[in-house]
Fold this protein.
Amino acid sequence: MGRAPCCEKGKVKKGPWSPDEDAILKSYVETHGIAGTWIALPTKAGLKRCGKSCRLRWLNYLRPNIKHGEFTEEEDNVIFNLFNQYGSRWSTIASQLPGRTDNDVKNHWNTKLKKKKKKLFLAAKTQSHLHSQSPLLHTQETDFTEIINHTPISCIAALDNSVDQFQIPTVSEPGAGSDSRDQWSSMEPWGCDFPADMICSMLF
DNA sequence: AACATCACCAACCGCCCGGAC
DNA sequence: AGTCCGGGCGGTTGGTGATGT
């Protein structure tokens, strides 16, 4: 007995928006604003779409001043810092990045930054095992979040090389897992001397 | 060239919260 | 005070182009 859906299934179009639909929505919102409710908007505008779908399309794509394209290193840094601070509160994070949407930030994190963070962690561990030079990295009490927080993104490329060069033997790469459905989060972490729950809680 | 796999991103789903009644 | 409804949000999925075999 869930709540009623916001629109009748079967009577609304789903899937990618056509240029025509975009034009109708854009024109309507620019002329009338979001007068009333999003639920009522598609009927008024003559769109066979769910109100929520219209809202999402407007906010993520049609709204003025939306920034598309590559994220800058500076933006990456902001996302890293805010993620460490707030976790996956994408709207909060996106609000600090003018022109970026929560969906954009979320996708960017899931496809790029999560992997970067993972590599950074592995690289930090590799360095500690090979060189045993950083007292920060020696004990179980080590706060790796600190390390990650204070490592510039620009260092990651170098650390990536370290990982590739040394081929950490205790790490088994996940199978062909792609995107957010990869298998890292479900597998036993790399049999190292740090508690699995600690590592997982930091990385995923 | 054909097929398989990967990576990315737009869009959907469903839950939660707050305002209106 | 309780219920309803819409907006907002985060998680997830499906489609598609790129890359590898």
